[in-house]
Amino acid sequence: MNKEKTITVTTKVQSDLKQVWEVWTGPEHIKQWNSPSPDWHTPKAKNDLREKGRFSYRMEAKDGSMGFDFSGTYTKIVPYKHIAYTLDDDRKVSIDFKEMGDTVAITETFEPENENPIDMQRSGWQAILNAFKQYAEKH
User: Fold this and answer.
1) Average pLDDT, 10 consecutive residues per value, the chain (139 residues)
2) Where do the Activator of Hsp90 ATPase homologue 1/2-like C-terminal domain residues begin and end (predicted)?
3) How far apart (Å, rounded) are the C-alpha atoms in residues 34 and 131?
C-alpha cells in the first residue's frame, strides 16, 4: 500500500476486543452497522474471514434510489489484531485493532478511488466507522 496515497480513519470503542472483533466480522452484525447515514443500509452481507476468503456487502439507499456491492478478497488475517484485503477494484485496505484497557482502538487505512473527492471518501468511511462504534458499544 502506497502510504502517500492512503486515507486513515480511526475510532476508539468502549468494549472488549473479542466483542469488537465479533461485531466487525459477523455478517448479521455487519448488516446492522455498515452504513454512513440513517438513509442507507446493508440488506446483505457475506463474510468468509480467512486469507483468500471473500466478502461482499450490499449497500443501498433505503429509498431504493441507488446501491452498490462492496466486495473483495482477504489478503491477511491476524485474529483480534489485523485484517487486510483487496477490493474488487484493486484498492488495498488494512484495519488494525489495538486493545487499550477497556477500549479498543481501530485504525482503518485505505487507498482512495478516483471518482469522489478525498474529503468525501474520508468522511464516508469515518461515518461508517462511527456507526460501528455506536453499534458495538451497545452489543
Assistant:
1) 82 97 98 95 98 98 96 98 98 98 97 94 97 96
2) 18-137
3) 7
Q: Which three cell numbers stand for residue 17?
A: 476486543
List, in order of start, the domains of the chain with CATH numbers: 3-37+74-136 (3.30.530.20)
The pTM of the full predicted model, rounded to 2 decimals, is 0.93
Question: Is residue 56 within 8 Å of 31, Cβ to Cβ?
Answer: no
**Predicted local confidence at residue 9, as pLDDT:** 98
Q: What's the confidence (pLDDT) of residue 139? A: 87
| Cross-sheet strand order for the sheet of 7-13 | 7-13, 103-110, 92-100, 82-87, 67-78, 54-61, 40-47
How far, in Å, CA of 118 to CA of 7, rounded?
A: 8
